[in-house]
Amino acid sequence: MAAGVQPVNWWVVVASSAVIGALVHNGISLRARHRDQLREVAAMRDRQAYARLGSLRAAR
Hints:
The chain is mainly alpha-helical. It has a domain at 34-60. It contains one helix and no strands. The chain has one helix spanning 10-59. It is rod-shaped.
């Protein structure tokens, strides 16, 4: 080993990489779940608007 170079504790590198990977994965999953929920709400509003339009036409 060269003088003045600190040895690397590979267990710390592996553990910290696993933690960072888990955080990134969970963040992406949470964002995707939120986006899907927003999409479902928008689709429900579209269905309700279409149903209201149909009931207004039937009332004429």
